[in-house]
Amino acid sequence: MHKSTRLNDMMIFLNDKNHFNLRDLMQEYGISKSTAIRDIRALEEMGMPIYSEPGRNGRYGVLKNKLLSPIIFSIDEMYALYFAMLTLNAYAETPFHLSALKLKQKFEMCLSNELRNNIHKMEGILRFEATKHHNSSPLLNTILQSAIADKVCKITYIKNNSDITYHIQFFDISSSFGQWYATGFDYDTKKVRVFRCDKITGITEDRSYEAKPIKELLNFSANIFQSSDASNFEVHILPKGADLFYKENYPSMQLITVNGEYIIKGFYNKGEEKFIADYFISYGKLVKSIYPNQLKDLINNRISEMSQYFSEL
């Protein structure tokens, strides 16, 4: 392992430790005692807050602070981080209190003029697919912090133009198709619910319920979303339809291949008929067959409704 690579890795290795000794580094990196001592000196020169403790079994301590010690990145790593950061521009809101523009400016201040010019050229050449988020979710950070802290929350949610109260413990936050979604356990119904974050208008801690460990909640499978009256389906599609599936799909469905045939298998709950019909209409002539006929009828009825609507415009 090259020395610069070893020092970077060593920073990460030591960052979560309060104390360490030379043997820890010698065993972790397969280096000699003298090399370990030289590496510690190099880390101190780079700004890592290390101090020695005298004694028979002398050891080193690491001062704790809120900032991770500086890490040296290769040029390719730096380019990758920079363009990953640019994807933040697609979000109207993030779970972090930051300005993507200011973050970009700070990043560029650490670069040489040559690297800065190369990055600006790359921005004009490279294009990354990112769905633009237009809806603001001002409580996104609060939702994230409540999930991290294993808190049960009382939330106010806009549904059908009315404010509805739920008692929820959030355990999953995702970004999909231009929206932020938060998944949580509903303590009133004992079911998992998915909420659009931009429709959450209020959130406060609720101590009347005993919170569950987040690991327990994360173990819930996709089947938790399936109600007892759900309808299963199988839709055979042409190979080109697989591209559409990968661009947009949901936890209640999966794409499988059987003898070269592409099949979307899944279920929809009562009340989701319009949603599932609209979803498969988007596949158009890429659909080969639909099972059961109940789903086929839903799609045909939905097409008739849309045809009548547009004919009356």
Low-pLDDT parts are: none
Separation, N- and C-terminal Cα atoms:
69 Å
Strand tally is 12
Q: How many independent structural domains?
A: 4
Could you tell me the CATH topology label of the largest domain.
SH3 type barrels
CATH class of the largest domain: Mainly Beta
Overall, the morphology is elongated
Written as H for each helix and E for each strand, in order along the chain, the element string is HEHHEEHHHHEEEEEHEHEEHEH
> How much strand?
15-25%
Helix content: 25-40%
Measured on Cα atoms, how large is the radius of gyration?
27 Å
Structural class: alpha+beta
Average pLDDT number: 86
Number of helices: 11
Order of neighbouring strands in the sheet with most strands: 7-6-5-4-8
Largest sheet: 5 strands, antiparallel
Q: State the CATH architecture of the largest domain.
A: Roll
3D structure, described in words:
The protein is of the alpha+beta class and 313 residues long. It folds into 4 domains: 3-62, Arc Repressor Mutant, subunit A, CATH 1.10.10; 75-125; 140-220, SH3 type barrels; 231-311, Alpha-Beta Plaits. It has helices spanning 3-15, 22-29, 33-45, 75-86, 100-109, 113-125, 140-148, 214-218, 241-247, 273-281, 293-311, and strands spanning 19-20, 50-53, 59-62, 153-159, 162-176, 179-186, 191-196, 200-205, 231-237, 253-258, 261-268, 287-291. A 5-stranded antiparallel beta sheet has the order 7-6-5-4-8. It has a 4-stranded antiparallel beta sheet with strand order 10-11-9-12.
